[in-house]
Amino acid sequence: MNNPQIDGVRLASTAAGVRYPNRQDLVLIELAAETQCAGVFTRNAFCAAPVVLAKTHLTSGPGQVRYWLINSGNANAGTGAAGLAAARQCCQAVAQAGGVTETEVLPFSTGIIGEDLPVERITAALPQLFATLDGAGWTGAARAIMTTDTQPKVASRRISLGQQNATLVGMAKGAGMICPNMATMLAFIATDAAVTPPFLQAALTQAVAGSFNAISVDGDTSTNDACMLAATGQLGNAPLEPSSTHAQTFQQALNELCLELATAIVRDAEGATKLVRIEVSEARSTQEARAVAATIAHSPLVKTALFAGDPNWGRILAAVGRAEVPELSIDQVSLWLDEVCIVSSGGRDPAYREAEGARVMAQDAFSIGVRLGRGSAHSSILTCDLSYDYVRINAEYRS
Q1: Model-wide pTM > 0.85
Q2: For residue 392, what is the enclosing H or E element?
Q3: Which phi and psi (to 5°) does residue 38 adopt?
Q4: How would residue 183 be classed by pLDDT, with cut points 50, 70 and 90?
Q5: Contact assessment for residue 266 and residue 383, using Cβ atoms and an 8 Å cutoff
Q6: Phi and psi (nearest 5°) for 220?
Q7: Which entry of 147, 148, 184, 191 is annotated as an active-site residue?
Q8: How does 321-331 read in b/e, with b if 16+ C-beta sit within 10 Å?
């Protein structure tokens, strides 16, 4: 969809001067009455004030959510009691303007950690936001929540629920401080379908596990991560639940949409030039496969070799070896770059030629395959290279 819309969702964005002048940095999303909402949040112990408040409002409110308020430029993290009070003031201001209760407003922030949130600038911009709410505002909102992103990230799906066609639309931001559990990312997804609250939460949790929680840019997990899913119910369908005829259709569409947004985050990673899927198979358990994939994805030596297009497979093999896989039999391990076998029986494959490895790594997207030869479990992580620009972007981040 070129201009996606969801019945029951209106969006607006404006330049509030949260950190920089004349930059779109504040978003208001209005959700229809009776909208159900689910969320998955960061596991970082130093979670930001808006995360604390959003989780509290989501679980202690009347059961519906009417507004999402999102700012970029300031994370409102590491700000203690004052930060929590600031987030609450913003919610109260939205609630008063929208004629709802404070707990029906969820706040979200992204940006610099440890600085006070400029509440007055945010609340002063609310009249402009309320006056410009529009169902077609997804792309503008996606642009306003960007930090080091270079482009907005929006995706949509249309699915058939028997005699009715449901729509899902989502947007996300994130380019650095990206690592599973979740990442320094925000994602907001909505559907016009009616979905029961337990299934809505379960569906989002499953979708996040295979998408936003299966990516890594730099191995850092943020204080502010949140992925939200709203079901407005405006389609008028019988509410979806796990036993519904079309439950799997909805789940698959949500999985695909989240994966598209997660892939866009890694493609837009700070300074990245390569998109790399690490696929670990023949493990004893999914957890074991995930541990190996994560060790490779987080290795600075592997990631800098990816940037150079250097098929230095010794770095990958060393990462596999330090992944703390108990009783790993190295003579069962094989290593692949796309369809090119580099390592077999624990050593360099006799047929391997470095020119073939270099050919694969010269591409802007490819896979690293590891077969452990000890079971049938598998897991994968989407990652990228580590370039000069990543260092520059993060060295200059606060300037």
Answers
A1: yes
A2: helix 388-395
A3: -130, 155
A4: very low
A5: yes
A6: -105, 135
A7: 184
A8: eebebeebeee
The neighbouring-strand residues paired with 231 are: 36, 191
CA-derived radius of gyration, the chain: 22
Q: Is the dihedral of CA 95, 98, 104, 106 positive or negative?
A: negative
For 275-395, CATH gives: 3.10.20.340
Nearest to residue 374, comparing CAs of 295, 300, 255, 283? 283
- 377, with CB counted inside 10 A (0-12, 13-18, 19+), is middle
In the numeric block, which tokens belong to residue 13? 């964005």
Secondary structure of the chain: what % helix, strand, coil (to 5)? 35, 25, 40
d(CA 254, CA 162): 17
Amino acid in the structure at residue 319 = A
Cβ pair 215, 266 in contact under 8 A: yes
Q: Which helix (H) or strand (E) holds 97?
A: helix 80-98
CB 18 within 8 A of CB 109: no
Clarify whether 184 is annotated catalytic: yes
The residue ranges of every structural domain in the chain are 9-267, 275-395
Distance CA 266, CA 358 (A): 22
User: Tokens 């899902």 label which residue?
Assistant: 168
**CA atoms lying within 13 Å on the CB side of residue 58:** 23
Region of poorest pLDDT, from 60-74, 139-153, 286-300, 310-324: 60-74
Lookup: tokens for 269 = 């990673």
CA distance 252 to 6: 19
Give the whole-number percent of the chain exceeding pLDDT 90: 76
- The Cα 91–Cα 49 span in angstroms is 12
Q: Residue 333, Cβ neighbours under 10 Å: how many?
A: 23
First to last CA, the chain: 37
Q: Which of 250, 187, 177, 253 is nearest to 216 (CA)?
A: 177
99 sits in the region (left: phi over 0; alpha: psi -120 to 50; else beta) called left
Domain 9-267 CATH assignment equals 3.60.70.12: yes
Structure tokens that stand for 10 in this block: 């209106």
Closest CA to 185 of 225, 142, 233: 225
Nearest to 330 by CA among 344, 341, 350, 312: 344
Q: Report residue 150 as tokens.
A: 């270079």
